Structures are given as C-alpha cells and as structure tokens.
Amino acid sequence: MSTSRVSVEQLEPIIRQMPDAFTILDFVEAFQERLPELWQQLVDRYGLYGSGTRYSALTYLSNRLSSYSKRKTPGLLQPMPVGWKPEEGRYLRRTTSDERQHFGSPWIAVFHRWEAAEKEVP
C-alpha cells in the first residue's frame, strides 16, 4: 500500500482557493475535486464517518489543517486554539443537521485563512 500522507505542498493550493472561513467539510469537497486519487487512498486507509471507526479520513485532514495552522513557519491559516471547550466562537460552531450526518459531532472547527491585509502570505 502506498503512503497516503498529505504534504504541505498539497494542502496549500487548496487552502488558497478556500473562502476566508471554512470547515473541514468545505475543505474536503475541494480536496476531492483537486486530488481524487489521494482522497480515495485516505478513505481506503481511514474510512469515512459512520464506517465503524472513530478516526476517519475527515479526522486525518482536519488534524493536518490544525497542525499546519500551528507550525513554526507561518502558513496560510491562522493558528487554531489549543484546549478549547465546546462553545460557539470564532473557531468553533454547532453543526447543521446535514453536516452532522457527514461529520458526526455536534461541533465543527472553523479554519480561518490569513487576510492579505493582516499578513503577507507566500
């Protein structure tokens, strides 16, 4: 089986096309369009929500985005907070009923791209 690690070089072009604020479900939709074979490798390896596993392809990509946002070399995303509690805010919101069917949790993280006025991005 080939490795299904998603690199920074694969993440960044997709992040660039995302709106200023987006969820993992928004990101996955763009990821599937741009890298369908890699998406299928992730699904084959981790499964989808509802396939009997707590760690899914969605979890993997969400963790990659969160890690990317916190890296030492600033990237395209604002850093996700650490140790938050479930409450509405800039980085966390309640899922819609449709989102919950695809994601499972009543809460979903909201990723934020740096705005050009705030930070010069590569």
Describe the structure.
It contains five helices and three strands. The protein has 122 residues and is mainly alpha-helical. It has one domain. Strands 1-3-2 form a three-stranded antiparallel beta sheet. The model has no long low-confidence stretch (mean pLDDT 85).
pLDDT under 50 segments (min length 5)?
Answer: none
> Number of domains in the coordinates?
1
Largest sheet: 3 strands, antiparallel
- What value does the average pLDDT take? 85
Strand order of the largest sheet: 1-3-2
Number of helical stretches of at least 4 residues: 5
Gyration radius, in Å: 14 Å
SSE sequence, one letter per element: HEHHHEHE
Structural class: mainly alpha
According to DSSP, the number of beta strands is: 3
List keywords for this structure.
122 residues, three-stranded antiparallel β-sheet
Quick structural summary:
With 122 residues, the protein is mainly α.
